[in-house]
Amino acid sequence: TGSEALMGTTSGLSMAPYIREGRRIIGRPAYGQEEFMIREQDLRNDLAGGRDFSATTIGLTHYDIDIHGCKYRNDEEPFEASSAGTASYFVQPLQVPLESLIPVGIDNLLIGGKSLAVSHIANAMTRIHQGEWIIGAAAGTTAGWLLRYGQPEDLTPAQIVTTGQMGDLQQFLRDSGLRLAW
Questions:
Q1: Residue 5: which pLDDT band, with cuts at 50, 70 and 90?
Q2: Helix, strand, coil proportions of the chain in percent (round to 5)?
Q3: 120: Cβ–Cβ under 8 A, 6 or more apart, which residues?
Q4: Whole-number Å distance between alpha carbons of 80 and 177
Q5: pLDDT over 50 at 175, yes or no
Q6: Among 2, 12, 90, 176, whose Cα sits 20 to 30 Å from the Cα of 42?
């Protein structure tokens, strides 16, 4: 207690707030959204409205929706996260689409790690180590493919899908050891 407390404060509270979530991008127009983001419906097998990202998948991850008790389903009894289907039997593997790594308005940038285009609920699945590593590996491998094989030579990440080169990129990702399907 007092100034000798674990947190070094007389109140016992932390000297600084703990921020679990960082900033996330708004992705390119894709899959019926002008400002694309991966949503809760895309992760869960018990909700309607999930989308198939296989056409532009660059990596695969899977984890529970690790929301830590946040009351994000306030319209259902008992108003707790436990009612929201966070357990693994509700959550399906996520095929991470290329569009979630490319910010609106910046053609030649790939996002790795936690900053991809996801809702705060989808972030609770993708922010853990496995998701970060897969997203980072996919971004780095995509950048390597662009430098080595991208045609024309000034091809940007934003042009891969529109120029019909997604299949070539996906084969390179598979050849590099990334899983694209469950």
A1: low
A2: 35, 10, 55
A3: 21, 72
A4: 39
A5: yes
A6: 176
Residue appearing with tokens 């009894």: 77
Residues 6+ apart with CB under 8 A from 62: 88, 91, 92, 93, 94, 125, 130, 182
Residues with Cβ within 8 Å of 82's Cβ and at least 6 positions away in sequence, in order, are: none
Residue 8 backbone class (left: φ over 0; alpha: ψ -120 to 50; beta: rest): left
Whose tokens are 């469950």? That residue is: 182
Which pTM does this prediction carry? 0.82
Note the pLDDT tens digit of each residue in 7-45.
778 777 777 877 767 789 999 889 999 999 999 999 988
| Token duo for residue 120 | 């705060």
Strands 57-61 and 94-97: antiparallel
Cα dist from 110 to 70, 102, 103, 136, 140, whole Å: 30, 5, 8, 9, 8
Q: Tell me the CA distances in angstroms from 132 to 7, 19, 115, 151, 182, one per residue in order.
A: 29, 17, 9, 28, 18
